[in-house]
Structures are given as C-alpha cells and as structure tokens.
Design goal:
The complex is a heterodimer of chains A (629) and B (568). Chain A is an all-alpha fold and 629 residues long. Helix content of chain A is 69%, strand content 3%. Chain A has a domain of 243 residues. Chain A is globular. The chains are: A mainly alpha (629), B mainly alpha (568).
Chain lengths: 629, 568
C-alpha cells in the first residue's frame, strides 16, 4: 500500500462508510450502530499501522520532517494540491482522533432517535477531523476544517438537550466567524507568496548557502518543473537576483503548501508588507488565524459557545468535542500560526500567554461556581486548554530583548508540554464527559446538589470515575500532571508572575474536582430523582471507561514512551528553525530599534560612551555585510 | 463608398459573418414562432408545447457549444462574439432546458397557457443572450428591454391572484422608470462622444480624457450613473431592489427561478460588458498598424458600418499609439467605475443579508438572498477593473471568478426555487413555518434543500464555497497586485472584509430554514403527501453537482478562464 493510499484510506474510510450506511434500513438500529462501530474500529486499526514496523507506512520517530507525504494535483489552475502527510505533531493527534471516535461510537448506544442520520453524520465528522490533522495544503485544511461544522451542527441540534438549537447555532456561528477570518488570512498569505524566491533560497539550484531544503517542502513535480523552467535559463544571474540587483524572471508562483508558506515566512520578506495600521501582513495574518483557532480552543473571550454546546450535546458528541475538536485549535496554532508568521508570533506573544493564563484562571473559577455537572466539566476544559495556549505562547517568549539569556530549551519544553496536554486532555476530558453521561442516562439530571452516595450504588463506576477525574485534576502519575508541569516549568523563565498564577490554578482545579467528587460520589445515600434507575454499569460502559482510565495511567507513568517519543524530533526541529529565525531576523531588528530610540533620548556624551562597536564594523566593512546575507 | 458597396458590405456582414454566429438565437426565434403557430391548427391544440420548447432549447444549447475561437464583432459592431458570449449563451440555454423540465414537473403552466408562457420565457432568454453579447449602448438598451418586457408578463403568470398582478404592475413600472433613465444616460454619452459603440467610446475617452472640461466630465459621470441605474435594476442592486421581494412573493416560484438565475446572470454579463467595454480596449481594436486598417479588416470590420462610424482620425491616432497606452489612459475611468461598483456591491450585499433576517415567507427570504448574492457577484467587478491596467492575466482570473460564481449559482438557486415550487404543490403553502418537521415527511427534499441552503451560505465542501472563494480570491489578488504596484486599492480590502462579515451573518437566516425543517417537530395536523419521484429526482440531480464539484472543479475553472480570456 502506498503512502497516498494509506493516508487517503484513513481519512475517507469513514465517509465511505457513511455512504454505505445509507443502504442499511433505518429501522435496524443495532446494525447501523454496529456497522459504524466497525468502521471506526477499522480506522483505528489502520492508524495503528503507523507503528507496525517494516513497511511503507511505518512512522520513523527519528525523522523530524513530514513522513508519508504525497502531493497530487487537485485544482492546478488555482495551485491547489491534494497534499497529505504526518509528522510528530500530527501523528499523536490522528491517533487520538481515531481512538476517541471509536470510544465515542461505542458510547452511542444511548442514542435512540434517528439512529441512521446520527451514524452518517458521526462518520462524516470523523473524516473531517482526521482530514484536518493530515492536510498540508492550506486550502485542503480549510475545507476539512469546515467539513466538521455541518455534522456538528446537526449532531448538537437534533440529538441535543433542551436548549439544543441555541447551542448548535452558537457553536456554528462562532466557528464560522473564525473561519471567515482564517479565509481572509489564507487569501492574503496565498497572494503574497512566491515560490521563486524560496526556490532561489533553497538547494534546488546548487546553492552553497541553501537555507531551505526544496525536497522537504514536498511540492508537486509540476510546480517544481514550472519553477525550474522559469528560473533555470537565468542561472548565471542567480547571485544578482538573490541580491535584488536583477528582477526575478517570470511570473510569481503562488502556493497553498503549508510547508512552503512556513519557509516563506521564515526565510523571505514576502509576508512583511505593511497593511492597515502599519502592521505587517505577518502580524495581521497571525492575529486573524489566532482568533480563528482560539475560538476552537476555546480561549477567553471566545469560549462562551463551549459550555452551551457541551451541556446540550449528547454524551458521545461531548466526548468528541472535548477530546478532539478543541485540539484542532491548538494544532492550528502550532502548525500554521507560528511557522508561517513568526514575526506575528513574536510580537503577539504576550497576548497568547495572557489569554492562556486568563482562560486557566477564569475557567477554574467558573467551574467552581457551576451547579450543573456537565457545565463544570466544560469549564474545566476551558481551564485546561489554557495550559495549551500558555505552553505554545511561552515557546516564543524566552528571548525577550537581550536581558534574559536566550535559551530555546524552554520553548521546546513549553511546546511539548502543550502538545502533551492536548493528548492528555483528550483522554481525560472525554472520560469525564463519558462519566457524566453514564449517570445522566440513568437519572436524567445533572444537578450537582442532588447527587451523592453513588459510591454505594455503583461502585465500579465510581472507582473508574474518580480515577479519571483525578487524571483531569493533574494528580502525579496520571496523564494530566505531565503537561501541566512541563508548561509551568517552561513559563518560569519567561515570567515568574504567570508561572506562579498558572501553578496556583492547580489548587483551584483540585478544589472544583474534589468538591464535585465529594458531592456526587461520596455521602451516605442518593436522594435525588430517579434513584431506582441507578443500575450498575453495563459491560460496554465499563470497557469504555476502563480503557480511558488505563490510558490516563499509561500516559501519566510513561509519558515519554507513549507520547513524547513521537513528537520529540519534529518539535525540536520546529523550535530550532524558529530559534534560528529569531537570531537571524528578529534579534538584529530588535537591537537596531532600541538603539535608535536610545540615541534620540540619551544625551550625546553618554551615547558616545554607550555606542556599541560592532555595528560600526559592519558599516566600514562592506564585505562582512555581503557575506552575512 | 457608394450605395451598392455599402449594401454589399452589409449583406456580406450579415449573412456570411453574423448569421452563423447567431445560430442559437435564431433557433430560439424559430421555436417561439413554431410554438405560437402550432396553436392555429386544430390538431395543434392537442400538442403539448413543452416538448417543442424542450427540443428547441436542446438544439439551441448544442449549437451554443460551438463557435469561432476568435473575438468577432457581428452585426456591424452591435454585438460581440467571443468565448464569454459562448459561455454565457451555453449557460443560459442550459438553464432554459432545466427550466422547461422544471415547469413540466411542477405543472405550471397548464396546457392552455403553455405556448404563451414558453414564448415569453424564450423571448426573455433571447434578450438575455443579447445582453451578454452587447457591444453597443443601443444594443444594451434593446437587450435589457427585450429581457424585461416578457419578464413583466411572466411575473403576472398566476392569473386572478391579486398579489401576482400587483407584482407584475410593480415590476413593469420600476422597469419602465429604470429603462427611461438608462436611455437618457446613453443619449448623453452618445451626444458627448459621438458614438455609442463601446470600444470606440473607450478609445474616445482615452484620447480626449485629458482635455475634457469639468462640465463635460460631470455630464459623463452623470450619464454613467444613469446607465448604472438600468443595470442595477436588472441586478436588483440596492437602492433599485424594491421590486425584487414583492415580485418574488407574488410571482410563481418557477418564474422566480428564471428571474433570479437567468436574468441575474445576464445582468452580470452585461455589467462586465459595459464596464470593460468602456474601461478597457479589447484585443484587436487599436493595436494594428494604420496600413491594415484600410484593408478589409478581419475581426472588427467585417463591420463595414463600424469602420465608417469610427472617426478615421481616431482610428489613425489610436492605432499608432497602441492598445496598452489607451488602456493606461483609461485608468481614471476604471477607478471611478471600480469605486462605484464596489460601493453598490457592498451596500447590496449587506442590505440583502440583513433584510432577509425578518422574513417569514420562503420566497421573500430567497429574494433577499438573491439580492445579497448579486452583491457578492458584483464584488468581482472592482478587482477586474483594478487589474486590467496592471496585469491582464490576473484580471482574466478575476473575471473567471465571476463566471464560476454564476455557473454554480445556477444550481443553487434553480434548486431552491424548484423545491419551493414542489413543496407549494404539496403543502399549498410558501410560509417557512409550514415547513416544520418536513424531514420526516420528505427526507430527500429536505436533505437537498439543506445542502442548497448551506451552499448558499458558502460553506465548504459545498460548491457555493468555490464561487465565493474565487471572488474573494480575486479581491485579495487585486489588492495585493495593486499595492505591490504602488496603486491604492483599499476598497478591495474593504470589500473582502465586508464579504467575509456578510458570509458570517448570512448563516443565521439560511440555518433558520434548515432548523425549521429538520429540528422542529412536525405539526400533527399535517395531512400526508408525497412530492413524487420525478420532482425528487430532479432536485437530487441539481444538488449532486453542489456536493461533488469540490472533488474536481478544475475543468470548470479552466472553462471559465477560457471564457474570460477574450473579454479584454
């Protein structure tokens, strides 16, 4: 099986299953559910194929770049390509998606209304989610990103709780606003991109100082040929063209290729044009994309759709929502925002970090105040995803000015912490929503004050639930701990205040989770409504809960072997690239600016004393300047 | 040139050059005559003319697929015949075929009315074909009238219904007013520039722009505003949209489909023809050396009349100067038109979307949606105007975006109105509230309607997104190219933002309809009904392209690129 077939099969198998479902009669509920479960199981097994050694689809943990990547012409007249691939950032998320989808489908037996429609939409949703994580063409990414919207709208709107319509449209509207912003950024980035310049900066034409590997951009052969035929005849002028003395021959070649866009963002000035308010395109694009993504994360102030959507959505959809959909925001930030717009990332770093910390604190306090069990879990998601934002933001932060010694190890730790937190939260929050769903299916209410004493009635359930809630709390030895500790440690070097606050949030988290456990599970006896319905968990429920708990423990005890091992190489590489960009582009420009200001404000005598010697050297010695370019 | 020579020239031009290119239009004429004549005989009354209409539309469509590869001016420069004409004509005739099938399925008109209705529709289509190939302001007026007058009668198709008659009257009065204003504008232009032939207008403007006095400029600006009024009426652009919701509510859904797709497409084509006819110089008009001009000219003048009409001095001067220079001279003209169209587009789009919120009648809602979409489509025009002088291949891309949007729009709006028509037959209602819980009764219709509505929002992976994406891409491209060339084009960036915001706000009212159909419970009082197999099949066939086009729309993209390549 070729890589192209393998990845396409993973992405489109659920959609194909949805088509087949149309032929199963809508009365036979169990056949419909069984078939859908089988499809999600096959998809999960297929994703396990990444770990099977010795074939083309094996994932190599030592390799940092894209693996199994392939690039096929889709809409060549618009430079749109069908370009998929996985690397250390997307692989864990692909697995998380197929895993959570399988479990959520298993939890879907509680759905009894319009089962056929539910299963079809569920499978379409899975295609959209998987597609987002493997798409490497920005247009394709955008399409997959939007593909999830429609199924999600109906899954909440048709199968949801009492205020389902409000919740569904709110979710839809928030996400659509975000994606419109993303579309604008996407178009501006596309039309400002030019592959010719990156081709000259790369090793495509025997360039001794190649900064980019053309091969690693995985551009399609047609594009490579087009660029080559355009530039090759002018090979003797390359030095002059690179220096800007001669105009670039031919017409500009735009691209939607995310890797090429990242190379453009880091190695050329194509995204540095000033737009409105004199912000550069990079800053604008970063901001627009960031808003689009943090709506999904969700981060304060765009989080208000989440509690509504979660509370109204049926249990399996809440699992998907918390387990996978929220991760897309984080994935988008790490895959698109920072690599393509490093300048924007640098200039907006405080915004990202502060939003993260505010989400953490606000989410935790809001969770403390909730009376509804599910709403409390929803706010805990807001709080936990704040760590992801903080970890990603810290990533670029360790290097402010020349005051702190610039050390990229902390970014590295922050971004790994954020990635780990995403996976861990995917497991623990899906588990928490499942646990809420189990009890809701029985007693049909979620009022925290009316629970109590479940331990006596449902001991197995309570044991599993407490384990999973502890994982969400971040107890050492369980999955929630690793991500939080990595993020908090990495923040310390950047801002002690933010580190202290984010560490303090752990206490709040412990507060609302322990309090909830006390109110729901402990206590003498259950006095709420429908007490007679509190039957023990079914084997299907036990298996889903137990699997989630086992993974919560495994991830907590063997974080490296289960998760970090796969993402290390890729994240190291991305951080190295951006470190290199920072030292090459950002630091010099930062050093240049304060100096100019200092010259203007400090009296001349002092300025003479303080004036650094190095810049003068560069001015005197033109050769140095040329070589450095 | 003596009289014989003149007559010979006209004869040669008409019979040898123009007629072959005019095949589809002639087929339409013949079909109209046939449909009306067949009723004169007793046996003819029993003939179902919808088959005749269908056959005529098919023959016309097949003929419309073939045509010369080069831009030709036919009928002495009145019409222009190029790939864009070809595209638009094929589009209009394809729509005509689908429309005839729709009317056959929905049962409007009945057999008695058939010949009248179909000849009105065919007549209007003929006018629309002329609109999309107009090359002369006189022709612009004639074509608009030719398309409008049958439409007035069509709006009153449901005889004996007060609303329907009101709609027809309102439409006719608005139309007459707009046409009068437009004619006045045309006469001002013709009086000032001594010609109404659009490429000649462009050359005249390029030549004389610098020497115009301010009062002459004022007259020109006024005239262009007046011509825009006529176009805006056909486009139902704000503030000339008032007729649209009322007419749509009063007229039958089938007629709405016709007005909202064919009429709108033709109006957009005409908009392109006018702004590009006046704001750019088509290839082959001014780039030839003087010597060639005296010899029989291949592309232009087979229009012998045109050669006479053109001032020889102008011809000599412009030919030496070349086309590019003329295009550069027209920059202020294009800027003026670009800002004007951008302004109208932004207002139209925003107003349409906001006004659609409060609607309870599905036809009124779709009428406002049509207005909003006219706004989106008009947004493609300003970047074309900006790019013409900077990078003509990019300008072609932008024009192709508009053509792509139009092509996809056909399926969306025809599908939507077809469903409204079928549901009207089943439910006897066109109120959104009466669609409650319809998914249980007619699942396929509701699924298709939902897909169409989401496609109208512009949500990927549905085809409506592709059109919107292409238009937004044209805006972004125009802005980027202009700012790299040091030209201010901030209106394009604003349009992009306004278009994006509008996409988000339009979601609400479309989703409301979907919500009513799928999520709301079914009223218990509803009597069982069935939409029928063929109507459902028709609707499904119209919806399939909206779903599958995302997988491979390259062919459509290339087709529209070809169509746009000869525009200017």
């Amino acid at each position: 099986m070729t890589a192209a077939l393998f990845l396409s099969l993973i992405v489109f198998l659920p959609a194909a299953g949805a088509l087949l479902l149309a032929f199963i009669p809508s009365k036979s509920h169990n056949a419909l559910r069984g078939f859908s479960l089988a499809v999600t199981a096959v998809v999960f097994l297929l994703t396990l194929g990444f770990f099977m050694p010795g074939w083309q689809g094996t994932f190599d943990t030592a390799q940092a770049g894209m693996q199994l990547a392939f690039n096929k012409a889709w809409i060549p007249s618009f430079n749109i390509y069908y370009f998929l691939g996985v690397d250390g950032i997307s692989l864990p998320l692909v697995l998380l998606t197929s895993f959570i989808s399988l479990l959520a489908m298993g939890a879907s037996w509680s759905i009894t209304k319009h089962v056929k429609g539910y299963c079809i939409l569920f499978l379409l949703l899975e295609t959209g989610m998987l597609g987002v994580f493997v798409a490497l063409d920005f247009f394709l990414f955008y399409v997959f990103w939007e593909v999830m919207l429609l199924p999600m709208y109906f899954l909440i709107g048709v199968w949801g709780g009492p205020r389902k319509e409000y919740a569904a449209i709110k979710f839809f509207l928030y996400t659509l606003v975000g994606s419109v912003l993303m579309l604008i950024a996407l178009l501006m980035l596309y039309f400002n991109s030019d592959l010719r310049e990156i081709a000259l900066a790369s090793d495509l034409f025997e360039n001794p100082q190649a900064a980019v590997s053309w091969e690693e951009l995985h551009l399609s052969p047609q594009v490579t040929e087009r660029v080559t035929t355009m530039l090759q005849p002018h090979a003797d002028q390359f030095v002059a063209i690179r220096a800007g003395e001669v105009d670039m021959p031919g017409q500009s070649v735009h691209t939607f290729n995310l890797l090429a866009m990242a190379a453009i963002g880091q190695h050329t000035t194509q995204y540095d044009d000033a737009l409105l308010f004199n912000w550069t395109l990079q800053e604008w694009a970063f901001l627009l994309l960031l808003i689009g993504f943090i709506i999904k994360v969700p981060s304060v102030p765009f989080h208000t759709w989440l509690p509504d959507a979660h509370v109204e959505a049926p249990t399996p959809i809440s699992m998907i929502l918390a387990g996978v959909l929220l991760k897309m925001g984080g994935y988008g930030i790490i895959r698109i925002c920072y690599p393509i717009c490093p300048e924007g990332g640098y200039n907006w770093m405080w915004l990202v970090c502060i939003l993260g910390v505010v989400s953490m604190v606000y989410g935790a306090f809001a969770a403390l105040a909730q009376k509804d069990f599910k709403r409390m879990v929803a706010y805990s998601s807001v709080s936990h995803m704040g760590y992801v934002m903080l970890g990603l933001g810290v990533w670029s932060v360790g290097m402010v000015g020349g005051l702190n010694p610039f050390n990229s190890d902390y970014w590295n730790m922050g971004i790994k912490g954020a990635m780990f937190q995403m996976i861990a939260h995917g497991i623990s929050s899906a588990g928490m929503f499942f646990m809420v769903g189990v009890v809701y299916d029985r007693v049909h209410h979620r009022n925290l004050d009316e629970f109590g004493g479940l331990f006596g009635r449902m001991p197995v359930y309570t044991a599993l639930a407490i384990g999973i809630f502890f994982a969400g709390l971040g107890l050492p030895g369980l999955c929630g701990f690793i991500g939080e500790v990595l993020v908090v440690l990495s923040v310390w070097n950047f801002s002690k205040l933010l580190a202290v606050i984010s560490a303090g949030v752990v206490i709040l988290t412990a507060g609302y989770i322990l309090w909830a456990i006390q109110r729901v599970y402990l206590g003498p006896e259950y006095k709420g409504p429908h007490g007679e319905a509190l039957t023990p968990m079914t084997p299907r429920e036990v298996s889903i809960g137990a699997v989630l708990l086992i993974f919560a423990i495994l991830l907590g005890v063997f974080p490296y072997h289960t998760v970090l091992r796969y993402m290390d190489a890729t994240i190291d590489r991305q951080v190295d690239d951006l470190t290199e960009w920072t030292e090459r582009v950002k630091h010099p420009s930062l050093e240049a600016q304060p100096e100019q200001q200092a010259r203007a404000t400090v009296p001349p005598t002092v300025a003479v004393v303080l004036a650094p010697v190095a810049p003068a050297n560069v001015v005197q010695n033109g050769a140095v300047d040329d070589a450095s370019r | 040139m003596n009289l014989t020579e003149y007559v010979n020239n006209v004869y040669h031009n008409t019979v040898d050059v123009s007629m072959p290119a005019f095949g589809p239009e002639l087929v339409i004429c013949a079909t109209i005559v046939l449909m009306l004549a067949v009723r004169l005989f007793n046996w003819g009354r029993r003939v179902d003319v919808s088959y005749l209409a269908f056959a005529g539309a098919i023959v016309g469509f097949v003929l419309a697929l073939y045509g010369p590869a080069e831009r030709t001016e036919i009928f002495t420069g009145m019409l222009v015949y190029d790939k864009f004409t070809l595209f638009m004509r094929a589009f209009l005739l394809l729509f005509l075929i689908l429309f005839v099938v729709l009317t056959k399925l929905s049962g409007i008109p009945d057999r008695e009315d058939g010949p009248d209705i179909y000849s009105l529709v065919f007549g209007a289509t003929l006018g629309m074909c002329l609109m999309s190939s107009a090359n002369h302001l006189f022709m612009v007026f004639v074509a608009v009238e030719m398309a409008s007058v049958p439409s007035y009668a069509l709006a009153g198709l449901l005889k004996g219904r007060r609303q329907s008659s009101e709609a027809a009257l309102k439409y006719a009065i608005y139309g007459a007013g707009a046409a009068g204003v437009m004619l006045y504008g045309i006469s001002l232009v013709a009086g000032l520039l001594n010609t109404a032939h659009m490429p000649t207008i462009a050359l005249e403007l390029a030549r004389r722009y610098a020497e115009f006095s301010s009062s002459q400029l004022m007259v020109l600006a006024l005239a262009s505003l007046m011509i825009l009024v006529g176009l805006a009426f056909k486009l139902s652009a704000v503030p000339f949209h008032f007729w649209c919701p009322d007419v749509f509510e009063g007229a039958a859904a089938e007629v709405n489909a016709f007005l909202s797709v064919a009429s709108k497409a033709a109006a957009l084509a005409l908009l392109l023809r006018v702004i590009l006819g006046v704001g750019a110089v088509p290839p082959g008009v001014a780039d030839e050396p003087v010597a060639v001009q005296t010899a029989p000219r291949q592309h232009l003048a087979d229009g012998a009349l045109y050669v006479m009409a053109q001032d020889p001095a102008v011809a000599a001067e412009t030919s030496g100067r070349g086309r590019e220079e003329a295009v550069a001279q027209l920059t202020p003209v294009r800027n003026y038109m670009g800002w004007l169209v951008a302004f109208v587009a932004a207002i139209t789009c925003t107003f349409g979307n906001l006004a659609a919120y409060g609607q309870t009648n599905i036809k009124r809602l779709l009428a406002y949606s049509t207005i909003a979409h006219a706004g989106y489509m008009m947004m493609a025009a300003p970047p074309i105007l900006t790019l013409v002088g900077l990078d003509s291949s990019r300008a072609h891309d932008a024009a192709a975006a508009l053509a792509l949007y139009i092509a996809i729009y056909l399926f969306m709006n025809l599908g939507a109105f077809a469903i409204v028509a079928f549901l009207r037959n089943s439910l006897r209602s066109e109120e959104i509230a009466d669609y409650a819980g319809l998914v249980h009764r007619a699942p396929w219709v509701v699924i298709c309607f939902s897909i169409i509505l989401f496609s109208l929002v512009g949500l990927p992976p549905l085809a409506g997104f592709l059109g919107k994406f292409a238009v937004f891409a044209a805006l972004a491209d125009g802005y980027v190219v202009a700012s790299q060339a040091g030209v201010s084009a901030s209106h394009l960036l604003w349009l992009l933002v306004i278009g994006g915001v509008n996409t988000a706000i339009s979601l609400f009212y479309y989703v409301r309809v979907v919500k009513v159909m799928t999520i709301d419970p079914e009223p218990e009082s509803r009597t069982p009904f069935s939409v029928g197999v063929f109507p459902v099949a028709y609707v499904v066939l119209l919806t399939i392209p909206l779903v599958v086009l995302i997988f491979s729309w390259n062919f459509l993209n290339e087709w529209t690129l070809q169509a746009a390549a000869q525009l200017f």
